[in-house]
Amino acid sequence: MKQLLVLRHAKSSWKDDSLADFDRPLNKRGKMDAPRMGELLDKLNLTPDLIITSAAKRARLTAQAVADRSGFDAEVSATRALYMASSDDYVAVLNEVPDSNRLVMVVGHNPGIEDLVQYLTGRWERMPTAALAHIELDLGSWQSLDLDTAGILVNIWYPKELL
User: Fold this and answer.
1) Sign of torsion, CA 140 146 151 155?
2) Kind of pairing, strands 132-137 and 151-157?
3) Residue range 28-59, pLDDT digits in tens
4) Which terminus has fewer CB within 10 Å in the chain: N or C?
5) Between the CA of residue 56 and those of 11, 84, 120, 126, what are the distances in Å?
């Protein structure tokens, strides 16, 4: 059994319109929501074994804030492959995860995040900024994950609900 946490990056800033999309940081709300999601993971004993994030600044900052507050004690792995990735791209990245990792978190962007949750659970769920989905996968190996894998949506959390 593998478990997947799917997190959309926290709210980003559009204050500096000279920045490329890839380089946008978190705004004030994003800086509050990301640590809140990490605290939730710590409270629920869902600290990931591995965190893989899009290399975009807003995703990296989200992933690091979650890592810092969840008790995650390894280095967050950033990859450009998850920047504006499709659900297929997420699966390709997850197929490379060593099987010693039981609970893995991916941090990225819509629409790929929503599509991934839908493919793996059969349910379309809205994934606004900093939304977090927990999916159980009846897999022995990450290499066998594909978009036809039938997962169970254990829960979905929205930062506004945690106030």
Assistant:
1) positive
2) antiparallel
3) 999 999 999 999 999 999 999 999 999 999 99
4) C
5) 13, 9, 24, 21
